[in-house]
Design goal:
With about 190 residues, the chain is of the alpha+beta class. It has helices at about 65-85, 95-100, 105-115, 125-135, 180-189; strands spanning about 10-15, 20-25, 40-45, 55, 55-60, 90-95, 120, 140-150, 155-160, 165-170, 175.
């Protein structure tokens, strides 16, 4: 199956969320782009959110967590090479837990040094917009409030989607620090 795919149409994504790291490779060949089939997916059960708290107090992401993530990223990099995904077609995005990490800059630099991939730190509005687009791709038409519950935050975006045209509020997404892991931590205190 890999031989039939053309590498120039492959896209890889690393989604570094608060409750897990997701890895995927999709085939955007013209005859399949509309459905964007995922040809590879994996998930690491690394909670970047939980790793940043010790005895209820914020701490930097521990080096042991970073090392574990780097091992998984290098494994995914090898997978991308096996599928012949072009290096410039790999996107690494990070959300709330990385935005708030006390050692966010060092964390992202270690990833870039080990993999050659730059970590794109999504702002809250962009995270909400991307979540809304994901919802829009699943339904023929939508008009209403889209909520994307993550581990560290929740984004809400007003959107309409009809006949392939997606519009979101010009004010953008609203983000609140009430994701699943954040709420569990607060309720446990």
């Amino acid at each position: 199956m890999v031989a039939q795919m053309k590498p120039e149409f492959l896209r890889a994504l690393v989604d570094m969320g608060s409750n897990g790291i997701r890895y995927s490779i999709s085939d955007l060949s013209p005859d399949r782009a509309r459905i964007m089939p995922t040809i590879y997916q994996d998930r690491s059960a690394i909670s970047l959110y939980d790793a940043q708290y010790q005895a209820g107090k914020p701490i930097p992401i521990p080096q042991s967590i970073i090392d574990g993530l780097l091992t998984n990223l290098l494994r995914f990099k090898k997978t991308c090479e096996d599928f012949e995904v072009p290096h410039n077609r790999v996107r690494v995005v990070a959300t709330e837990a990385t935005r708030k990490a006390l050692n966010s800059d060092d964390f992202r630099q270690q990833i870039e040094k080990a993999t050659g991939w730059t970590v794109e730190l999504l702002n809250k509005e962009e995270e909400g917009r991307i979540g809304a687009l994901g919802v829009a791709s699943s339904f023929p038409s939508i008009k209403g409030l889209v909520m994307d519950l993550g581990g560290g935050s929740i984004q809400m975006t007003w959107m309409t989607s009809q006949n392939g045209e997606v519009k979101t509020s010009p004010k953008g997404a609203v983000s609140f620090p009430y994701g699943a892991a954040a709420l569990m931590k607060r309720l446990g205190e």
